Amino acid sequence: MSDRLVVSTAQPDQPAAPPGTTGPHCLPSSRALARIALAMSLALLALLAVYLAISVPNGWLPAVAPKAFAANGLALARGTGQLVDEELRVTAADSTGVTLISLAPDLRASDYPTIAWIAADIPDGAMVRLLWRNDNAPEKVNAIDVPVESGRTFPVIVANNPAWIGRVTGLALAIQGQLLQPIRIRGVIAKPMGALEILGDRVGEWFAFEGWVGTSINTITGGADFQDLPLPVLIALTVALAGTAVVLIERRRPGTFGASTPMALATLFLLAWLILDTRWAANLARQEWYTAQKYAGKSIRDKHLANDDAQLFAFIERALQILPSQPVRIFIAGDADYFRGRAAYHLYPHSVFFDPRSNELQWASKLRSGDWLLIYHQPEIQYDLSRQILRWPSGQTTSAELKLIGPDTVLFRMR
Amino acid sequence: MDAIALLVGFAVVWVLGVALLAVIAPIDATLRAPGHVAWTVGCGWFVGAFVLTLWMRVLAQIHVPFGIASIGLPLVVAGGLLAWRARTSKALQWDGAFASLMGRNLAGTQRAIWLLILGWLAVRFALLAAEIVWRPLFPWDAWTQWGTKARVWFELRTMAPFVTTAEWLSATSPNVYFDAAPQYPATVPLLQVWSAILLGRWEDTLINLPWWLTGVAFGLAVYGYLVREGFEPLIALIGAWLVLSLPILEVHIALAGYADLAMSAYFTIAALWSLQAARTRQWGDVATALLFLVACVLIKNPGIIWVATLIPSVVIVMLPRYGIRIAAALFIAATLALLVLARTEPIIFLYHLHLDFDMPWRSLFNAYFAFGNWNVLWYGVLAVGVVARRHLLSTEVAPYTAIVGAGVMFLFFGFAFTTARVWVEDQSTVNRATLHLAPLFIVWMLVSFRAWSRHVALRRAITTGGRAATDNA
Fold this sequence. Notes:
The structure holds two protein chains of two kinds.
Chain A: H1 2-9, H2 30-55, E1 67-70, E2 75-78, E3 80-84, E4 87-92, E5 98-103, E6 107-108, E7 114-120, E8 127-134, E9 142-145, E10 148-149, E11 152-153, E12 156-157, E13 167-176, E14 183-191, H3 195-206, H4 231-252, H5 261-295, H6 300-305, H7 310-322, E15 329-334, H8 337-347, E16 351-353, E17 372-376, E18 382-384, E19 389-391, E20 397-406, E21 409-414
Chain B: H1 2-24, H2 33-61, H3 68-85, H4 97-101, H5 108-134, H6 140-156, H7 165-170, H8 187-199, H9 209-228, H10 233-244, H11 247-254, H12 260-280, H13 283-297, H14 303-308, H15 311-318, H16 323-344, E1 347-348, E2 351-352, H17 361-370, H18 377-387, H19 398-417, H20 421-425, H21 430-435, H22 438-472
Antiparallel strand pairs in B: 1-2
Helix pairs in contact in B: 1-2, 1-3, 1-8, 2-8, 2-9, 5-9, 5-10, 6-8, 9-10, 9-11, 9-12, 12-13, 12-15, 15-16, 15-19, 16-19, 18-22, 19-22
């Protein structure tokens, strides 16, 4: 066995391992490491310069500074809201479904190619537009779409719009759509988009905290949800550029880096990995701080009561006092997939049925006498208390006894 | 008290696995001890954990209720007997293992880097442990299709059946159960059941300790394998760090509850044991490889396809003369078979195959290259594929190339030709499916890169020697 294994490490058609690939020389010397790191740094700077050359709309070092307008300087022209903790919280649109937040900034358009509204919790599907007037045509309202992702507005580059000229005398954010939760607006920033500002934005995106969410198990963005220049792409390009330079230089002047070409390339790769790993580790450490704040030192019950489904969990705790100790059949109805699943999870080891992917109730006809039914936030199902009858959206009725009632939640036993 | 119960309970499982491995897969003492100890201890966790779940299945079959005594005592006895039998095994020569762990056999800078990496990993695993201890079961499938079974089986102290919607609705008693994936295998939930039995209650934080242990053991196994394959200990440790620092892998430890981490670890080790078994053809290695292959099938349903992807590599090792040609024929045959299957629109594991090529390239690029899931793994894979292209089919590298090639083929067909493409577009499955193969890509990268670097060094030596000879002449 061992002979074969030994053979496997130095196959017959492979050259024997030459001196230098093992032992103390499997690492570059500190001098070589410094030179490789320098090559990588120079490549990074070069790539950032190229990126800025493409991205900076005007001058690299603009004469003006960014101009920020805080929430207390904004006017809510349409809709309802108030200032809370330095945020304008808009709780409702007007009767036509429009929310309009405005200000009179008096900006020279050519100085500020980008406008960034700092707004969060914009409802899905809402149409969001940036409006402005300028002193060239003060009666005309100009508009441009504002991209929204995950409820947050993105900066809008307005420099290329022909109406972004003269002095901007009025600026507004228009949101068309009903609000399911308050929109939070912290202010608006007119950006000159100089090189440093753009770099600052990118760094902010790379190192933005990415906490656990429902999709974390599937994918990690690596910083902000949306990035103009993802860090792995930049780092990989850096390694490619530095690696190419190393190969070319070593070919012309062997020994410049004090390490073989494979070792230099491997070192570049590991440095790149280390950079990204450090970012990830820092994010993980920060996440643990938040996790500790939420859960550390709590009993398992209190941990569940700190979760998003706390209300449901508390109801099911009470329901379990009423349910028989032996497993019974329990059907779960609810609008949201999440809460149907959570209700089932808390009710095991009762024999629970829930539709994991649909809130439709095709199973209603399968209810039998003695079965239980837990309804969480499903207003389509009605109950006639006097006749003790459940009426389903299909029109079907079922005789049922109300056993427990709580906020948005009811427990029945079929008769 | 909880910590002691869990540590003792899982130590029993781990010791059982290590002892079993030491008995059935003895290793020659002439090879380097550190690699053997790490490899045996790392793989031992996986063997022990899988044997535990097999034993729990047996108990359920013979209607013996789950309990510390019914599950644990036989394992203690078996582990003790095997440990006694294995006490002279060459695989468990602990002398010097601690010194190796502390890097005492390494020179100055190497030792400093060794300790830095170990410290870095220790901090990381401390953070991951904190998350497991504090956070209740969090990710979606963990509480709709994996932990559901564990909860029921723990409370009932046996394995009640989980059935389809139609079967549940027509059942006359509440003794059958339903969740979001009733057809999924029992292995992973049974590990949670054992945790809960050790604790004596359902506490959906600590029951996830096996995920953390899987991470630790996986690192040991990868390190051990690489040392056995002739890599310097520091390079092998770097290899283990590359595997353990994959962000998506760490997420699956921190947010425990899915089976993908286990699938990844068992498949990686199954592949490596299969190569070893094909080389040595000793019954112990073959038996161990088979154990891991069966485990793959019993962890996730796609496990059977992952196992099938290992066939070309085993053929290459077993038939060195014609292996590559046979493997190439297998690849072509598999491609044709998949195309035929695709034309007939069958359903395999809920994947609807049909010949409608539509690879979501943009989403795939984001998942592999732009997002933070993989650090720079796939850039490295591409780069190694280019620089080491002439060595990928060498005797040393070809088996690994066949493994990752077949794995890529499986993923490619899934993503490009089936409804699984939707799960690439919404990023819901692409990374989890790829996680099963990614650690093997790291092993392939290291082996391929070594073959190339040796070639470069040899060429350089020949050139230098030639110049010296010319100068002397």
